[in-house]
Amino acid sequence: MQTPTRLQTLLLKGIQNLAHDTWIKTSHSVAAGHATPPPEVVEHIAMNHRSLTELEDLASLVGCPHSWLNYARKAGERGEPWSPERPFQSPDKAPRLALIAALGEKIHSLQDTAGVLAAHTLRQHTLDSDEQANFGAVMGVRWQRLGAVAHELGLTDRERDQVWSRHGSRHWANVVAQECSRHSDEELSNRFNAVAHANFSMEATPLMVMLQSGTSLEHITTQMPHSAEKMVELVDVALDAIPREPEAARLNEAVAAATPSEHAATEPPHNESAWGGTEPEVIARVADYGTDP
Length: 293
Prior knowledge:
By secondary structure, the chain is mainly alpha-helical. Helix content is 65%, strand content 0%. The two termini are 34 Å apart.
């Protein structure tokens, strides 16, 4: 029978209390005779919803069963505040392979974020200092969150290699650099702005919960092979080795890549396994990073 860890308990508490706070704000608005909640209440409820979604996403990553998440949210929506006496038990336990795969998707997204900053800086040369600072802060928080998840799951060296590899290659920075080099300037700018203008407080809320559980920066760095800054640097090195192409050439290549090839059915698929012997046709431009922090 599965019972919550300290971190899972704190996340469930946060989810239920956020849902309960939304119930309170809505109830007070109705009691005050408002046909619809005032704008400031609407904004407060929207922030609660975004934070609750972030906490639920994080709780899923660390193995909280859906039944726990559903109960905590629904109880708060019914007007019930968190009670430490309420026991959470479940006969079901999230398969470890599924948790590792979900973490791998998040790590790959973080790698892509590093690639966006490296490639956009290379194209634009100078960036708005405030935007660049917020981009770095948001990426740093996401890096810490994923390191905390990896610590909670207790990744082995093999699993760490698995979540960091791309398309069967441990040279993830080269794969990310190749992908980013195909993006148009406009696409890179849009992706950069999405992170640079993200709400930092919203991004940091789940991390605060994780730190309250006893997760330390040392725990996090032990699980992350590279710092956020080093990730950007590694992609930058890989990008530097790729021949520069004009914007028109990149657009043509992108169109060609999106057009199905008449020979596609006969092309052998790449080995997607992190442990397979087939590497994508990308020349290694940065060292094999291994698993040591």
